[in-house]
Design goal:
Helix content: 40-55%
Radius of gyration: 24 Å
Strand content: 5-15%
Distance between the termini: 71 Å
Bound molecules: uridine-5'-diphosphate-xylopyranose
Amino acid sequence: MRIAVVGSGYVGLVAGACFADLGHEVILVDNDQQKLAALRSGQVPIHEKFLPELLGRHRGNRLTFSDDLKEAAQLSAAIFVAVGTPPTERGEADLSYVESVAREISGGIDDYKVVVEKSTVPVYTSEWVRRIILRNGIDSDCFDVASNPEFLREGTAVTDFLFPDRIVVGCDSERSAQLMREIYAPLTDGSYYQRTDAIPGPDRAAIPPPLIVTSTKSAELIKHASNAFLAMKISFINAVASVCESVGADVNQVVHGIGTDSRIGGRFLNPGIGYGGSCFPKDVMAFRAVARESGYDFRLLDEVMRINEDQRQRFLRKIYNALWTLRGKKLGVLGLAFKGGTDDIRESPALFLVQSLLQEGSKITAYDPAAMDRARNVLGTSISFAGSSYEAARGADALLILTEWEEFATLDLNRLRQELKFPIVIDGRNLYDPDVMSAQGFTYYSIGRTASHPDGIPTPVAKNGKKA
Ligand code: UDX
Ligand code: UDX
């Protein structure tokens, strides 16, 4: 089938490349000429596993790039809208890009087409998209608007798209539902997973995902509610971690104890410095605004956001408690991205903490496996960038772990202790075991667990490893 995807950001680019890999003819549309030129010339503007392979496979044949939305719409049976829906001042989703795209698409509707919301949008958006297209003189028989929310996570976006737990399509007509079934058939009938060149999935037998057909409104709500629930789970465990700190319990033990209850589940119960990224912060706010507008005071979401904000302040206080004062202190920082596996720094808790520590007068040397270029655009020369975790720790008064990159959890602790001025590690992602760290001579602070000290007050490390 011929499909158009508007917006080549994290969602649009991944969806477009995956649709091409399912066998569809895909036109990726974007109004950013620089991005288009980069994509056409073989560059991959975002850090996503398997995306370079997919773009390499299909670029120029099943996957083409264009800035002409009207033409792309004319040529396609379905047009997926994946443009940005950034938050407004008041926390609502800014839908102006969605509206302008809907208007442009109208110009290309000359036979039956389905316009599909892929971006995260508030409930009722599909109604507005429909109204805009009707106002632009298109007959209601000539199109349908559907909602097909995306649940992909950055860093694992391609496998999340191709091996989803479920595919949700919100359709208000059988005709549009049928077309959506055809688009996802290679996944729902399992044929994609039989292919020898299929992208490898998570280490379990590929199970064809269910395709859940709902109304457009329900599908729009499923997305907001899913993200809000996951954010709530993170804030809940962070709140429990704070109680653990007060009573001397171990949050990781608590997570194991509650997570093994199949009604709760252990995923998304990792305590840390709070959630970030381009989705959870804005989607929780947008859902709060949608509920308010619909007359429901969803105060639980305020608490989810408050706990998340507070988690950053609590970590700052933890650094103060470890180091007393911060002015002039040399700090090593591991992680700038909002989470491991991505170069994305949007709403990154790590970046927030680095900027707060700079305001406190600390000197920072940071390392991140993928996000340093994007961080440099924001932080400029206010911090130093290191070539490795060990270089970031060199001569530092303490090391902060702010992003859960896998490589940060397997560092050579001996070497790390040698690099540091003081063997102090303040871990915002609980990547290490407190007992192991104290046995290795570190003073180790983490989230929801009692700080561990080697044997009393930490002293500067002499270069020969002996106490000064
Ligand atoms: C998008 C949605 O913004 C978000 O709501 C949803 O949760 C995930 O999908 P993302 O892919 O990260 O997020 O967006 P972004 O990286 O901002 O990319 C949007 C793309 O749309 C950009 O490449 C931008 O150039 C393009 N765009 C935007 C258009 O082509 N036309 C427009 O009118 C506006
Ligand atoms: C999220 C949703 O998971 C995805 O379904 C949706 O489509 C887009 O938004 P993403 O933002 O890429 O995906 O990242 P995710 O892996 O969900 O992590 C979000 C934030 O929560 C990160 O800052 C991460 O560090 C944090 N997190 C995640 C925790 O603090 N604890 C956890 O247990 C899980």
